[in-house]
Prior knowledge:
There is one protein chain. The protein has 103 residues and is an all-alpha fold. Helices cover 26% and strands 0% of the residues. The chain has helices spanning 12-25, 48-60. The radius of gyration is 17 Å and the shape is globular.
Amino acid sequence: xxxxxxxxxxxxxxxxxxxxxxxxxxxxxxxxxxxxxxxxxxxxxxxxxxxxxxxxxxxxxxxxxxxxxxxxxxxxxxxxxxxxxxxxxxxxxxxxxxxxxxx
Length: 103
């Protein structure tokens, strides 16, 4: 898959992080996990009902979908003034943009 840790485009979460975190979350918007469709260029008419059902389900559950739990800048997770994540807060094996999401 192109959007995976070793894929040519990298993980979709890393690709979307600057938008989700920097453009939406930073000024105060609660950001929901994206609804992502892979391989849409290869979708057939037979695929459409399943995709439409998944999209419908997503829309029906928007109010109960938990937002992405980004770490807040001034609430103790980061060293001030460097804004580096404090040692020991990173989940095991997590690197990159994923460090800045709780859980």
